[in-house]
TrEMBL record:
UniProt keyword Hydrolase, yes or no: yes
Gene Ontology MF term list: glutaminase activity
Listed name of the protein: Glutaminase
EC number: 3.5.1.2
UniProt keyword list: Acetylation, Hydrolase
Organism for this UniProt entry: Pseudoclavibacter chungangensis
Binding site for substrate: 64, 114, 160, 167, 191, 243, 261
Residues shown, of full length: 1 to 307 of 425
Reactions mediated catalytically: L-glutamine + H2O = L-glutamate + NH4(+)
Subunit structure: Homotetramer.
Source species taxonomy: Bacteria, Bacillati, Actinomycetota, Actinomycetes, Micrococcales
Gene Ontology terms: biological process: glutamate biosynthetic process; L-glutamine catabolic process
Family: Belongs to the glutaminase family.
Amino acid sequence: MRSPLPDYLLEVVDACASDRSGALADYIPDLARADPERLGVALSTIDGEVYAAGDVDVEFTIQSISKPFVYALAIQDSGLDEVLRRISVEPSGNAFNELSLEAGTGRPYNPMINAGAIASHALVVDGLSSEDERVERVLEAFSELAGRELHVNEAVFESEMSTAHRNLGIAHMLRAQGIIEDDPEEIVRGYTRQCSIDVTARDLALMSATLANSGRQPQSGRRIIDPRVVRQVLSVMLSCGMYDAAGDWITTVGIPAKSGVSGGVIGALPGQLGLAVFSPRLDEHGNSVRGVQVCERLSADTGLHLM
Ligand code: DON
């Protein structure tokens, strides 16, 4: 029998398309040029079956959705103890671009905010690696997670670097605190390239389904992330993935998630599926308005909520 899922996803997309609230991110000049009307949702089961509706093959830069995956690489490459010594796992309650360093330890509150993600990037490969090696490692891992070769969007990278004063400021503070030991400008360049990797909603559904599948990519069957690392990553996504809207998200949608300023949102339901929505207009927290709405509907209609 044909699955009713594609028709259902189309209904959800149609129902959410009329909401034109929110605004494009414009602190990265190139993102303000996105088509605000785009809306797509893709869902991958842990068996690698992908269901999709709307603009699921349009490329956009991954932005903060890169953070949980690079956190996973940092743990795999540098070890959990070393990562925890430098990055905490507490919700910050602040916006993603605040410095948010924990009193006493000087660690960024968590790896989902920019400060923690910049620190994670520095721990990829082994903390002694070069800028190019770190970016190469991230690109290769993301390509395996998505099941196709991904690339850095150099135009978005250049655009973000032209206004990256906050992230540069954060990286210099991290260097002063000894959280990162490399050149802060190199780390911010690598981190910004990591955020500028082009993906589609279909790619992101497979990437999140890999988390839902204990680290094994559902289509290739390859183990990319260790199951214990997946547990750490999903836990941090659940408490910190939607920034200062994390509490709202947990109560309404109720699954580990991550958003990005180009309009993507991913969610992973362990043992079942990964989902991804793309729609560029953002709310005041920097989360996609229609992305959150689509997930709320899916959760209400299909009982995705973990509790
Ligand atoms: O560092 C930044 O500000 C961006 N490259 C990523 C921020 C982001 O996606 C926040 N998400 N909502």
